[in-house]
Recover the amino acids of this structure.
């Protein structure tokens, strides 16, 4: 009975409980997940690095090692331009999600004393995350267009007489769209860290006569930094790997590295796509490594 | 905080922030009731109608606007999401179970798993397409795309379960064992009820993320479209309100999932409370 029951509990375990060796059990439990990640995550990434050195002919790639694709990438204005656009959009969106998200997180995490209300607000912020990403991107088209909702409201209010055309199919629309979609990932971690601040610390500072700005600068901001960094990691990784928002909202004016990869794959230029992929991986790795120097992600979770 | 002015200001800001989050979706929902087929995806609403919803289900006379290819795509997306949900949750629970004991190399394994949710779809998708090309394997939504969906959602399930196990007192299990309860019964009566909220959350994460996933699918699936791919296909052409109608329906579906999740969680919390009261009595 015990034998059968044990094997039911952990199917991979066949030894009787008395002779069970813990390390073995741990490794058996880990094996499926680790194997899956090695085969379907690590191997594809390594393959991408490998293929970036293959020889690209018109429609095929051949496993003859060459640096040609790399040289093409770094001597082409299109590719370098895409790299620069990616970095620029990433920086702008990172700053704008922080600026837009921090005050909301401050309110939800620190100012709302009622636990139910603060949870409800946080849930309200997170709900869009569960709905279709593509639909949320697409929803900006009727907002920002020449005949869109924002232009209509601005004209009704008499703020502008001509519709603002730069709102849609421009870099601005991509930035607005990305800020809205990704600021949730800033608000969550920051509000979480702010919620952990002991209120008596702030009260003590108040009793000693500190102004709000002083309290913010010396207590709130430093204690919320791990949240800011975790949020920044989320936002950075997602924005750097983006291509759908720019495809939907820029009218092909904004080409990120992700867009380059999609187009190159579409025209079967696998080696060029792989080079762009490796460049993107290196960029992302550098950004995350820099941010991780500030905070230990595993300790915060 | 004495600064009630600041609190008021931040409250107002947060209201605006929520309008910013939901505004576009509300506008999209309003425009989905535009008249058709001549009404475009913008204001003003010429006439309120459900034309585009009927268009979605092929109930309107043929017009110059092609219907969205959603019928087959819906079946594929749901099947893919269910497959992903099952495999991710099982992998997540087993891996997190392993992490309850300290072991050598746990840091490396932790980062390896978390990497799955961090690496952008465009990279892992491209890599998988290259692997499939080299091995001469055909790309399919149920094959190459499915394994990538698990790579993406398994870390979420893992982290959720890790958080649950961190708060889980192993002495409860040990007490059951030492009282001679079989491990299977212990798992059913003690372990599972305690981890159930986590399992439910992991399933919700895996299902929704897979259902909406498209960058991995774009590279790793073959000719057959899933729902997000069908939507992505409309990006390059003129957008008609039928896409908006579809957006409303898929958003309602996501809300229904969230609602089911909330109800099940509520039931599980109530059950836990009842058990606690029984214990006290």
């Amino acid at each position: 009975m015990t034998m059968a029951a044990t094997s039911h509990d952990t199917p991979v375990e066949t030894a009787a409980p008395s002779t069970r060796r813990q390390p073995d059990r741990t490794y058996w439990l880990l094996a499926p997940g680790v194997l899956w990640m090695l085969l379907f995550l690590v191997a594809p990434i390594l393959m991408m690095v490998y293929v970036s050195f293959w020889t690209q002919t018109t429609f095929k790639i051949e496993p003859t090692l060459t640096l040609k694709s790399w040289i093409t990438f770094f001597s082409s204005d299109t590719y370098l331009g895409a790299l620069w656009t990616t970095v620029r959009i990433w920086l702008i969106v990172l700053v704008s999600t922080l600026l837009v998200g921090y005050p909301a997180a401050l309110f939800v995490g620190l100012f709302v004393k009622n636990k139910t209300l603060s949870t409800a607000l946080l849930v309200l912020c997170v709900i869009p995350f569960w709905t279709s990403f593509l639909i949320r991107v697409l929803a900006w088209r009727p907002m920002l267009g020449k005949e869109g909702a924002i232009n209509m409201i601005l004209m009704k209010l008499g703020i502008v007489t001509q519709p603002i055309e730069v709102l849609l199919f421009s870099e601005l629309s991509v930035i607005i769209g990305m800020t809205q979609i990704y600021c949730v990932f800033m608000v969550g971690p920051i509000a979480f860290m702010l919620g952990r601040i002991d209120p008596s610390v702030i009260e003590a500072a108040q009793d000693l006569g500190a102004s709000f700005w002083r309290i913010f600068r010396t207590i709130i901001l430093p204690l919320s930094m791990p949240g800011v960094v975790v949020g920044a990691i989320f936002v950075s990784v997602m924005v750097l790997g983006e291509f759908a928002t720019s495809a939907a909202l820029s009218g092909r004016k904004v080409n990120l590295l992700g867009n380059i990869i999609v187009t190159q794959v579409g025209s079967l230029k696998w080696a060029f796509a792989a080079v762009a992929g490796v460049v993107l991986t290196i960029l992302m790795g550098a950004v995350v490594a820099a941010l991780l120097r500030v905070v230990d992600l595993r300790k915060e979770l | 905080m004495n600064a009630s002015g600041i609190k008021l200001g931040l409250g107002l800001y947060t209201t605006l922030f929520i309008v910013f989050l939901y505004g576009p979706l509300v506008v999209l929902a309003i425009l989905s009731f535009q008249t058709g087929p001549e009404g475009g995806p913008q204001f003003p609403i010429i006439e309120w109608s459900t034309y585009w919803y009927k268009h979605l289900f092929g109930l309107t006379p043929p017009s110059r606007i092609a219907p969205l290819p959603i019928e087959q795509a819906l079946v594929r997306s749901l099947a893919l999401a269910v497959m992903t949900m099952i495999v991710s949750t099982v992998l997540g629970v087993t891996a997190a179970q392993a992490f309850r004991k300290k072991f050598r190399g746990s840091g490396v394994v932790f980062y390896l798993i978390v990497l799955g949710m961090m690496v952008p779809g465009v990279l892992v998708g491209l890599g998988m397409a290259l692997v499939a090309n080299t091995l001469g394997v055909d790309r399919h939504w149920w094959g190459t795309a499915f394994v990538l969906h698990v790579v993406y959602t398994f870390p979420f399930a893992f982290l959720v379960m890790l958080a649950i196990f961190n708060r889980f007192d192993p002495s409860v299990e040990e007490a059951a064992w030492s009282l001679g309860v079989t491990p299977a019964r212990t798992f059913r009566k003690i372990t599972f009820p305690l981890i159930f909220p986590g399992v439910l959350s992991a399933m919700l994460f895996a299902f929704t993320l897979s259902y909406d996933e498209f960058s991995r699918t774009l590279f790793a699936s073959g000719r057959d479209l899933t729902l997000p791919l069908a939507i992505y296909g409309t990006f390059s052409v003129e957008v008609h309100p039928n896409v908006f109608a579809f957006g409303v329906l898929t958003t309602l579906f996501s809300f229904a999932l969230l609602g089911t999740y909330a109800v099940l969680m509520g039931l599980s919390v109530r059950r836990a409370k009842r058990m606690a009261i029984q214990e006290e009595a």
Observations:
- Chain A has two domains: 17-41, 77-300.
